[in-house]
Write a structure and sequence with these properties.
Layout (H helix, E strand, L loop, with lengths): L1 E5 L11 H15 L3 E7 L1 E2 L2 E2 L9 E4 L2 E6 L9 H12 L3 E5 L4 H12 L3 E5 L6 H5 L3 H12 L6 E5 L2 H10 L4 E4 L17 H9 L8 E6 L8 H14 L3 E6 L6 H10 L6 E5 L3 H9 L3 E4 L8 H8 L4 E4 L13 E4 L3 H13 L4 H11 L2 H13 L2
Helix pairs in contact: 1-14, 2-3, 8-12, 11-13
Amino acid sequence: MRVCLISSSFYPAIFYGGPISATWDLSKKIGEKGVEIYVSTTNANGNKRLENVDVKNHRKQAENVFVRYYHEQIINLFSLSFLLNIYSDIKKSDVVYVQYLFHYTVAISLFFSCILGKKIVLCPRGSFSNFTLTTDKSFWKKLWISIFIKPYFTKINWQASSYLEKEDILKYFPNSKVDIISDGIDFDSFQNSQKVDIKSLVKKYTNKEFKEVSEVIFSMGRLHKIKGFDVLIDSFSMYVKENPFSKLLIAGVDDGMENKLLNQIDSLGLIDSVFLIGLVDFNQKKEILSNSSVFALCSEFESFGIVITEALASGVPVIVSNKTPWKDIEKNNCGIFAENRKEDFFRALNQIKLSNFSSEDCKKYVKDNFDWEVVSEKFLNLITKK
């Protein structure tokens, strides 16, 4: 079987966060199972272009995984070579797997896939959420769905990352075929992490040395308003009054909120307590997670939230916004599902210190549900079923 994976961006375009790594990992896992994956993507990486990638041919990147990065003349808006060649890429494939919704690559790919009668699997990655459709160009997004998605919705097999996303899809297109298949992680890669002195850890990532550090609270994501880092900082400003040696580290590339967050940190007098540490690679992320007391995420919306699985796989309990699909963490003894308000996150930070969350429970929940071996089998069933 040959799958044409169409995505507006692809690894190593890590500007776009966790979904990029997740798509790459899924591709490798499916390739290992004997399915050919031909990725048709662009060389976009935020407002820049990827360097040293093949824009002329599909080049082998892993077992049975071949990637072509079509050059964009206008970043995130247009690629002539994609327009001229995607028909051929789709024609050679048995299944077309499309990522995202509001991008020209999606509109073109759905049109050609339907003309050619191909099986289509579409993963919207949160594009149908109320937050997405009511903020920032909401009229145009709804118009886009009417023109470029609605004509084909009966021919689309939808992949939802969570029960929340399935509900969002069915609100727009009732009776559609929707399978819930979450993102996943390589569980084993997060095991046997090295424990380090947390004062040394803080110094390494902040370039500041402190005589005493009682704990590290960690959060991660692109610095965008949807991630709710302002709420987390406000809640931490309350928490640090009673826990003056605690430190909050926030990792992620700027996506419009960095200056605002820095001003907030300064105005709250937290310049020695809260740190924006920028983009971290896998090993750095693993190191921070394995030495943190808790991972906290105040997102206004997550269709899934890969970094939650990574934290839990590291044995770290989590505090997660109730605007995300992680309501099961409490019954699995992995963390707290909190109202997305500063007072509630403040209470959760205090409560989690008194709770009996165990590293073993956190890890078991992830291994049983979100390891790539489990997730990839679900995806294989989706693309092969009639």
